[in-house]
Specification:
Helices cover about 45% and strands about 20% of the residues. With about 375 residues, it is an alpha/beta fold. Helix 1 packs parallel to helix 10, helix 4 packs across helix 11 and helix 11 packs antiparallel against helix 12.
Length: about 375
Amino acid sequence: GKGLAVFTSGGDSQGMNAAVRAVVRMGIYLGCKVFFIKEGYQGMLDGGENIVEATWSSVSSIIHKGGTVIGSARCLEFRERSGRLKAAKNLVDRGITNLVVIGGDGSLTGANLFRSEWSSLLEELVRTGQITKDQQTKYAHLHIAGMVGSIDNDFCGTDMTIGTDSALHRIIEAIDAIVSTAYSHQRTFIMEVMGRHCGYLAIVTALTSEADYVFVPEMPPPRDWPTKLCDKLEQERSTGQRLNIIIVAEGAIDRDGQPITAEKVREVVVKNLQQDTRITVLGHVQRGGNPSAFDRVLGCRMGAEAVMALMEATPDTESCVVSLDGNQAVRLPLMECVERTKAVTKAMENKDWENAVQLRGKS
Ligand code: ATP
């Protein structure tokens, strides 16, 4: 059967295990020889015990676990051609020509580069006597299917990334807990949630927790936000509301591109309103815990679709990323989605908020 390997790379997220499980089982079901690559690209270029054959039962009892059981890592060496050469040798040695990568845009970019270099890497391996001419011919084409595991929902092309829904559950639970104590003491709470370049978690959290104000990276508030914020908080209190909630995305910025931190917001509130104001930074709690039903199903569907895409691929097929569009699992050109995701970040860096929001919206 065809050699197929699955690995997770970049930040972990809930639901990655469901995806790994689906890849392994769908692969075996379709007659492939399936491998795990542990610790992301690091494991791919270290080889050895890091690349092991998967069995049907080796993915039992992982669907409910958070994180990724096969490990994830950041790997500087894979950014160099010499690193990718080692990785190619390890794959050819095991007959792997199909890769499923579960990660963020960085991981997908690396995979795409690896594929575009594949034939020249094999050429070099033959030249240096590391593989045979027969191997070069037999494993001439590398196929790649990606899917996005990230709690941030920061990838253009998919409605939801794997892990976002679970993170939202975690955040909402934390806010509900805080609301009850805030209510008792008439406090103002500022919650910092994850999202370096993407305000999705912050926006959805704000909507579902009846927050009074939200700060996100894509849409900096008007310059007089301190006044607007305080007016809003006061107005809510004057109509009998006993608490205030403010959500701040990790990457929130003002119109000058300067960070709006939870601490900055607290200073504004305390100075102007003298309210008892507390900050909660949720941090990695958002990534922890069990995946939600949605993320488990999403991981399963994406994983199965990725394997099918690889099995149908021809040497000319573009690398794809498996995405959710409405309620459909779809395949989109990998690099196009990566480019658009990068364009959003670039637009934000250039303070072109309107463009950023537009690009982000085009999913
Ligand atoms: P997250 O969104 O969680 O940060 P990510 O996949 O974007 O996930 P990165 O740290 O950017 O995370 O990338 C993960 C790994 O992918 C890197 O450590 C590196 O090994 C590889 N990688 C990223 N970008 C490239 C690139 N341009 N060329 C080669 N490899 C890359």
